[in-house]
Design brief:
The structure is a single chain. The protein is about 35% helix and about 30% strand. The protein has about 240 residues and is an alpha/beta fold. It contains eleven helices and twelve strands. The chain has a single domain (about 1-245), classed as TIM Barrel, CATH 3.20.20.70. The chain is globular and about 40 Å long.
């Protein structure tokens, strides 16, 4: 299991949101590049970088900063935020990203996303599927979590299985930034239904016990954000725990 420390960016700074709400952002007085370097020293090989400015407007993309983070030796960057076209994927790969995260586009424009799989390869693409509990199932949120698409999680996954889909980052929005624990039931269900996928859990990690529970499920990875900034989780310990899966 891979640990993906999260670095969320607004105006060049590291932030964490609460349940995806921009007006509930906590800023941290640290350089994003220095954070990536510190994570590398603690043993991580990946970071998960979200350009929240780019998510709101493509005119405000933080490409230079993402390029700087990607230049940290020994680090691979998985990044997204406002990917609205195949050209956005290409640009992020060109500046050093190892994998590009595609979110709302996967629901709004499946043809473009299928073209991305064909053009760049499945290992370069991660689908970010942000979900809302709905009638004992999960529906997908789009547009920066502001809109319920009405489309079910399973429907989105099955649109891309024949195109080599491998990496899926699934966030339970109701858990994100809460430090209340992960939705273990959601990830257990996904791993059982889709054994060919590397599922990345995201949202609610509060301590090493969550890493241990996710290890038992054989998920492909876990994104940890606020729990690292708030020192609820020691990254080196989490990486060691994950390596035992």
């Amino acid at each position: 299991m891979i640990i993906y420390p999260a670095i969320d960016l607004i105006n060049g700074s590291c932030v964490r949101l609460y349940k995806g709400q921009f007006d509930c952002a906590t800023s941290y007085d640290v350089s994003p590049t220095d954070v990536a370097l510190e994570y590398q020293k603690q043993g991580t090989s990946w970071v998960h970088v979200v350009d929240l400015d780019g998510a709101r407007s493509t005119l405000n993309r933080q490409s230079d900063l993402i390029k700087e983070i990607a230049s940290v030796e020994g680090i691979k960057v998985q990044t997204g935020g406002g990917v609205r076209a195949a050209s956005d994927v290409e640009k992020l790969l060109d500046i050093g990203a190892s994998r590009v995260v595609i979110g709302s586009l996967a629901v709004k424009d499946p043809d473009t996303v299928r073209d991305c799989f064909r053009s760049f390869g499945a290992d370069k693409i991660c689908l970010a599927i942000d979900v809302i509990p709905y009638a004992e199932q999960f529906q997908v949120a789009v547009s920066g979590w502001q809109e319920n698409s009405g489309v079910y999680l399973s429907t989105v996954l099955e649109m891309y299985l024949d195109y080599g889909l491998r990496h899926v980052l699934c966030t339970d929005i109701s858990k994100d930034g809460t430090l209340e624990g992960c939705n273990i039931g959601l990830y257990a269900s996904l791993v059982t239904q889709y054994p060919s996928l590397d599922i990345q859990a995201s949202g609610g990690v509060r301590g090493i016990e969550d890493i241990q529970e996710l290890c038992k499920l054989n998920v492909g990875g876990v994104v940890i954000g606020k729990a690292l900034y708030e020192r609820k989780v020691d990254l080196n310990s989490a990486i060691k725990e994950a390596s035992s899966c």
